[in-house]
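Help needed: design a sequence for this.
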């Protein structure tokens, strides 16, 4: 990437941070996608023509459709910014590849698996062993409140206050939302706090700062393995999905669920209605009195 394009990308990312409230992770992803696109375009990004962009489809043929869609979206937003700021007169992004994507249904745990996960974790925590208490606190916040992994690891030590049954979270796009905290979660965190160093800034401290996303992923899988649940079936995000799916199955309103999850678009939340429908179809096919009847 030449210096001129690098300066344009920097200006674009500054706009995304200031106006769109993009998180550091989002900004890093945009920068990476734009740098890779510049390489594929032969080093020219800001001055790329429609003809140049139309050739990216063949260049990206080996990539997953989701990756192609993400890179195309980054470029479209980049060129729209250039036009809006009068840094170029035309928007060539109509020539970008547009793969058709079918959003996959999120993986969730069944209630028996959730029961087994919590029963095993709570039995181990009964001994008072600090890391076992930490594990229960993590499970309660992921499944009980639907926190994102990045939100959980970034919780300060004083995030939960006695008698305050909610958190004010700053999620994606710097948008605030109220997150309910159950009595179970409050008690689990209180037990874990007794073992958190008083000078720690974080609720879940790591060697240098808070625990990392990778470490959180490892912890959740370790807890699942001890409960007899295949580790490849679970992750922090799977527990967030389970929180949403089980609430919806229990009668929660879709708009309420949207607010709890912090989704900007209710279309994102609506995927959980498909999950519930898929489970109902599976139930009919497996449990209906005529399910085993030969045609």
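Sure. Designed sequence:
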């Amino acid at each position: 990437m030449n210096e001129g394009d690098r300066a344009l990308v920097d200006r674009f990312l500054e706009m995304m941070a200031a106006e769109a409230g993009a998180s550091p992770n989002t900004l890093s992803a945009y920068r990476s996608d734009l740098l890779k696109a510049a390489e594929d375009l032969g080093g020219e990004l800001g001055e790329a023509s429609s003809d140049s962009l139309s050739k990216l489809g063949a260049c990206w043929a080996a990539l997953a459709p989701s990756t192609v869609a993400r890179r195309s979206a980054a470029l479209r937003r980049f060129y729209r910014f250039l036009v809006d700021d009068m840094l170029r007169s035309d928007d060539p992004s109509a020539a970008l590849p547009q793969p058709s994507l079918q959003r996959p249904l999120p993986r969730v745990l069944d209630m028996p698996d959730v029961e087994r996960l919590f029963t095993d974790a709570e039995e181990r925590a009964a001994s008072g062993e600090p890391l076992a208490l930490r594990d229960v606190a993590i499970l309660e916040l992921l499944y009980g409140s639907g926190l994102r992994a990045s939100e959980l690891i970034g919780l300060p030590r004083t995030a939960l206050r006695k008698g305050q049954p909610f958190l004010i979270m700053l999620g994606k796009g710097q948008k605030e939302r109220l997150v309910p905290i159950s009595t179970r979660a409050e008690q689990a965190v209180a037990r874990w706090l007794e073992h958190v160093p008083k000078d720690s800034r974080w609720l879940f401290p790591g060697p240098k700062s808070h625990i990392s996303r990778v470490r959180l992923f490892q912890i959740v899988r370790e807890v699942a393995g001890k409960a007899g649940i295949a580790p490849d079936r679970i992750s922090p995000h799977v527990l967030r999905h389970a929180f949403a799916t089980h609430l919806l199955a229990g009668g929660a309103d879709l708009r309420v669920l949207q607010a709890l999850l912090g989704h900007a678009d209710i279309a994102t939340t609506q995927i959980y209605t498909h999950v519930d429908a898929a489970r109902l179809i599976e139930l009919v096919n497996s449990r209906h009195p005529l399910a085993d009847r030969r045609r």
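The radius of gyration is 23 Å.
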